[in-house]
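Human: Here is a favour to ask of a fellow structure person. Comparing notes only helps if you start from a blank page. Give me a protein, with the fold worked out from its sequence. Please set it down just below, with no commentary around it:

Assistant:
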Amino acid sequence: MEKAKSIKEIAKLAGVSTATVSRVINQNGRFSRETEERVRRVIRENDYIPNMSAKGLRTSRTRVVGIIVPDITNPHFANLVLHLEMDLFRRGYSCLICNTNESEELESKHIQSLTAQNVSGIVLISGMRNYEELGDLPVVYVDRPSNSQDKEEVMIESDNEEGGYLATRELIQSGCRHILILKSLGNDSNQFARYCGFRRALDEFKIKEERSLCINLKAVSMEEARESILFMLDREAKFDGIMSTTDTLAAGAVIALRERGLEVPKDILVTGFDDCQIAAACGPGITSVHQDIDQMSRMAAKLLFEMMHDGKQIHNHYRLPVSLTVRNSTCRSK
């Protein structure tokens, strides 16, 4: 049987009006749960895709959302973008994914391109600054706060300071007293928050911070982390634990330790941050701070949808709780 190709045919099969089908697709209320389930079942069975271009012509905005991400190769960001794309697609929006490679110039060009294309909204992941050209366009900031000084924004982030604290406390409670920290020196406020958590744990256990063991990298790079740890080992720096502000850095550290014949956790303990696949797969398995990507993406999609669809002005800062996933990289006698 030939599948339905128009909203009128979907409405006929579902036994409702075209207006009801439109309300279900756009989540515009005024329909029962039973009606919604019936309409969505018919849409699924017919592989129906709404004509978003026609909708865009009528409203002057396309049914497209821009997602700006600093590094699509980073497992944490890749996972977040995947969930966002799926959540937004379920709400009837396609996504344009723009990778900035942590470049403010490229990020600015992507902003200009997306606004020129009349996107309905933007999810800005780890944005580097505030952009006046966004105007009243619905924007949700994820992972890193907006730098706007003039107005509040919709911001969703993890409790990064608590995560840094949990990771460092795990190292201390596992016996570490000389802890090296690997972090990026970029403009990422999350890195600083995780460093603050690191210092809080040291203070709580009355352990003095060793400035020579605070390593600031130019980028969140596995190779940079590897080279830095090799350098520290070659100069015979004394440390028994490594607190890494991302899993990527933690993986680079584990590789360097292995190259010098050291074992994790027998010789040195390691923690990461993000709890992505690399943490589970690398070496002995890396203890890592878990961020709730599912909740973060669902919340971002929901809030952006409300702003795009209902014109709501939402001004909230959400800080989501984190937890610690303990793996073998910190498992020795406490």
Notes: Residues 293-310 form the longest helix (18 residues).
